[in-house]
Structures are given as structure tokens and as C-alpha cells.
Design brief:
The chain has 137 residues and is mostly helical. The chain contains 6 helices and no strands. Helix 1 runs antiparallel to helix 4 and helix 5 packs antiparallel against helix 6.
């Protein structure tokens, strides 16, 4: 994933409450990609970067963890995923995927992207049995 220099990464507040709030899974993916592209940063700098992009409940969730629980970027992102990520169990996500239908005002592209987003969530919950689109199950 490419993050344009001028674009910046939105602050994560916790669970999204409005359309302006970033999706937690997407935000985590974006931050991981950003940090991977900056391999020269130390682990402390990576954690500081994440903390600078948190506010509200998300910031508090990390701030009040024991230092050894939040001393690497991966640990911080894992905590955020556990606390604020997609709460659904695999069967519920699969059902949501298979029952997804195109909404009245939704174009074909939006519908297809919605299906891909759901599929991606299923793959993250069960990577051994699901993989990238185009691969046989």
C-alpha cells in the first residue's frame, strides 16, 4: 500500500462512530504499511508514531497498558485489533459475506468492493482455509 506524503494517516479514536472515523482494520493495515516503508525507524519511534495517531479511547487503551505490553509497534497494533477490531466470529462473517446483496443505490463497483472487504475479513479470521481471491478453497 502506498501512502502519499501529503496525505497523512487519520487519528484512530476507537470504534468508528461516524463515516469520518477510520475503520480499525483498514487503519491498522495502513499503519503497518507505513511503518514497513520506514525500516530505518527504531521500535520506540514506531510506537511513538502510532501513539501520535491515537486519541480518545484508543489512546487510553494503549497508554494504560504495562510498558512490556506496548513496547513494540506490533504489540500495540495487536492490542488495538483485539480491542477495536472486527468482533465477529468466523461463521458470522461468512454468513455476512454470503448474504451480502447489492443495495438499491449501490453501483457494481461498490458492491464488488464491499464483497472483497468482507472476504478479506474472513481470510484474516481463518487464513489456513481461505486465501487471496482467485485461489481455490
Amino acid at each position: 500500500m502506498y501512502v502519499h506524503r501529503d496525505r497523512g494517516i487519520d487519528k484512530l479514536r476507537g470504534h468508528p462512530h461516524s463515516e469520518k472515523d477510520p475503520d480499525v482494520g483498514d487503519w491498522i493495515d495502513e499503519v503497518r504499511s507505513y511503518l514497513e516503508s520506514r525500516a530505518h525507524l527504531s521500535e520506540d519511534q514506531k510506537v511513538d508514531f502510532i501513539m501520535e495517531h491515537l486519541s480518545g479511547q484508543a489512546w487510553q487503551e494503549i497508554k494504560y497498558k504495562e510498558p512490556f505490553e506496548r513496547n513494540t509497534a506490533n504489540k500495540v497494533l495487536d492490542i488495538l485489533e483485539d480491542v477495536f477490531g472486527e468482533p465477529g466470529l468466523l461463521p458470522a462473517l461468512q454468513e455476512k459475506f454470503y448474504k451480502r446483496s447489492q443495495m438499491e443505490n449501490e453501483g457494481m463497483l461498490e458492491y464488488a468492493l464491499g464483497l472483497l472487504a468482507l472476504y478479506d475479513k474472513v481470510c484474516k479470521k481463518d487464513p489456513d482455509n481461505f486465501s487471496v481471491v482467485g485461489t481455490t478453497f
